[in-house]
Amino acid sequence: MKLLHIDSSVLGPHSVSRQVSAAIVDRLRQATPSLDLVYRDLTQIPLAHLSGSHLAAAQGAPAPAELGPDLAASAAVLNEFLDADIVVIGAPMYNFTIPSQLKAWIDRVLVAGKTFKYDANGPQGLAGNKRVIVAISRGGYYGPGTPAASLEHLETYLRGVFAFMGITSPEFIVADGIQVGPEHREKALAGALQAATSLQAA
C-alpha cells in the first residue's frame, strides 16, 4: 500500500498544517508499518505554474526544449498520485484559498483521461479508489454560520476538485483560529493533533 504525503505551507517548522499532516502520516504508519511512503514538499521543489506552452504540449503540439524538465516533473507528480492508495495533504489557507504551490500541483494531477473523463453522462472521476486526508489550517474561523463563511475557498475548493476526480468522501482535519491569539492557536493545534491520532487505520 502506498501513501503520498504532500506539504504546501511556506512556514517550515512553524507551520500548523505541516505538524498535523505529519501526525496523520505517523498515525497511519504506526497502524500499517509496511506503508510505502512518498513525500513531496511543494515549497522546497516547486512546480511551475501552467503556461500556454504547457497547454499546447498537452494537446500534442511540439514542446520547446526548455520545457522538457518541467514536463518530466509533471509526469512524475501525476504518477505519484495515480500510484497512491492514500494521499495526505497539508493545506494552509492563504488569502481565503489554497497556496499557489498546491494549485500548481492540482493542475498536474487534474488531467483528462487520467483522473477524470467526459462521456455521454458528463464528467466521470477516475480516481475514486483513493483515500484522501487533508490537514487544514486557517487563521480565522470560516465554518458554516460564521461571519467569514462566504470567504472559505480552501476546503470547499478541495472538496470540489477531489469529487470531480471521483473521490467523494475526502477526510478533513481542521485547525481554525490559529492567528486569533496564542491560546486559540494552541487549542486548535491540540485538537487537530488529537483528531489525527484518532484516525481510522489505513
UniProtKB/TrEMBL annotation:
Residues holding FMN: 9, 15-17, 93-96, 137-140
Major enzyme class: oxidoreductase
UniProt-recorded Gene Ontology molecular function terms: electron transfer activity; FMN binding; oxidoreductase activity, acting on NAD(P)H as acceptor; oxidoreductase activity, acting on NAD(P)H, quinone or similar compound as acceptor
Gene3D superfamilies to which the protein is assigned, alphabetical: 3.40.50.360
Entry keyword set: Flavoprotein, FMN, NAD, Oxidoreductase
HAMAP family reported for this sequence: Azoreductase_type1 (MF_01216)
The protein's name: FMN dependent NADH:quinone oxidoreductase
Source organism: Bradyrhizobium japonicum
Higher taxonomy: Bacteria, Pseudomonadati, Pseudomonadota, Alphaproteobacteria, Hyphomicrobiales
